[in-house]
Specification:
The chain has 11 helices and 18 strands. By secondary structure, it is an alpha/beta fold. The protein has 2 domains: 213 residues, Alpha-Beta Barrel (TIM Barrel), CATH 3.20.20; 123 residues, Lyase, Ornithine Decarboxylase, Chain A, domain 1 (Beta Barrel), CATH 2.40.37. Strands 2-3-4-5-6-7-8-9 form an 8-stranded parallel β-barrel, surrounded by 4 helices. It has a 6-stranded antiparallel β-barrel with strand order 10-13-16-15-14-17. Strand 5, helix 6 and strand 6 form a beta-alpha-beta unit.
Length: 366
């Protein structure tokens, strides 16, 4: 018997969430972001769930090749660009568009073209650092970078790109969204090329910024964007992590639970032991009371999460027994409701799903 912990991927939910993203940005084309193994959902599941997207975007070149070899014919965008000469060769061979965010990448591209290691047509996303200060040319260098790329015969299309730090909180005092928008507009005015600035939060909350392409990520997997719950936008969870009770303990007042004896029973109670732990990707620092569903009934975590197990209060589910189904997140329990008490975000839980966890696709409706 395999261990009862299974992550079920709902392809229909992914398709639905893509439709929400596309409907919100009806005049724009959609890059579906599938980096980090499609946020832990599996690259091929992502390809299937987002077959209706106009393109897929990621950062891992070996995975982009996997997409092409699996049959993806539409555009692919490498969001961090090429890391070395070999990536440029791969991009040209497999028709991968790629970001350019620094002068070193332009020099590498010029050299590869001059040495005839690659040829066009190449599609480039020129990235502006509009204030987030991760990747991108500063505004005073952006136009020169554009001209330098435009002079290369191998370069076909140049799309103008930036990334917003606070689209879900536009009035953030550190970097208001309006300041980034104004920076982008000033830096790109008069330059030819399509525009792309919108991540998930921008897609959902700022329709005036959809531009030519949107780049939804977390919303496609049913995660929240900003203060509103994912369900508020009609999004559905694409991953449900389920396990079973593999042990039950009857406690008396004063009995301790788990490593460090963090939880002390306030009175007689039953607890269930679940086959899931931090080695599976469940957050080790989840506090007592972090929500869990036992046979569909909401209860809470008790005691410190172990490597392979965690414990839950069975008081709300008195009929629970060995083998009873436990939902750690997904259908009926939003992943963000688990992430927030643990001081993290749903993204991290999705991406942290361990290789030892079985991942299966839910049966498709006929």
């Amino acid at each position: 018997m395999p261990r009862p912990l299974v992550a079920t991927i709902n392809i229909a939910a992914m398709q639905h969430n893509l439709a929400v993203a596309a409907e919100r940005a009806s005049a724009a084309k959609v890059w579906a972001v599938v980096k980090a193994n499609a946020y832990g959902h599996g690259l091929l599941h992502g390809m299937q769930g987002f077959a209706g997207a106009d393109g897929l975007s990621l950062i891992e070149f070996d995975k982009a090749v996997d997409l092409r070899e699996a049959g993806w014919q539409k555009p692919i965008l490498m969001l961090e660009g090429c890391f070395d000469h070999a990536d440029l060769v791969t991009a040209a061979r497999y028709r991968l568009g790629f970001a350019v965010h620094c002068a070193e990448q332009i020099r590498m591209l010029e050299l590869a073209i001059r040495e005839r290691a690659i040829s066009g047509p190449l599609d480039i996303h020129l990235k502006l650092n509009s204030g987030m200060n991760r990747l991108g040319f500063r505004p005073d260098a952006f136009r020169a970078a554009h001209a330098r790329l435009r002079s290369l015969e191998a370069v076909r299309d140049i799309t103008l790109m930036t990334h917003f730090a606070n689209a879900e909180a536009p009035d953030n005092a550190g970097l208001p969204l309006e300041r980034q928008v104004r920076c982008f507009e000033d830096a790109t005015t008069g330059l030819e090329g399509e525009r792309t600035v919108a991540n998930s939060a921008t897609d959902l909350l700022h329709p005036q910024l959809h531009a030519d392409w949107v780049r939804p990520g977390i919303m496609l997997y049913g995660g929240k964007c900003g203060s509103g719950a994912a369900a508020d936008f009609g999004l559905r969870p694409a991953m449900t992590l389920r396990s079973e009770l593999i042990g039950i303990q009857d406690l008396q007042k004063g009995d301790a639970v788990g490593y460090g004896s963090r939880f002390i029973a306030p009175g007689p109670m039953r607890i269930g032991v679940v086959a899931c732990g931090y080695a599976d990707g469940y957050p080790r620092h989840a506090p007592d009371g972090t929500p869990v569903l036992v046979d569909g009934v909401r209860t809470g975590l008790v005691g410190r999460v172990s490597m392979d197990m965690l414990m839950v209060d069975l008081t709300p589910a008195p009929s629970a027994q060995l083998g009873t189904t436990v939902t750690l997140w997904g259908e009926g329990l939003p992943i963000d409701a688990v992430a927030e008490p643990a001081g993290t975000i749903g993204y991290e839980l999705m991406c942290a799903l361990a290789p030892r966890v079985r991942v299966v696709a839910a049966p498709q409706p006929h």
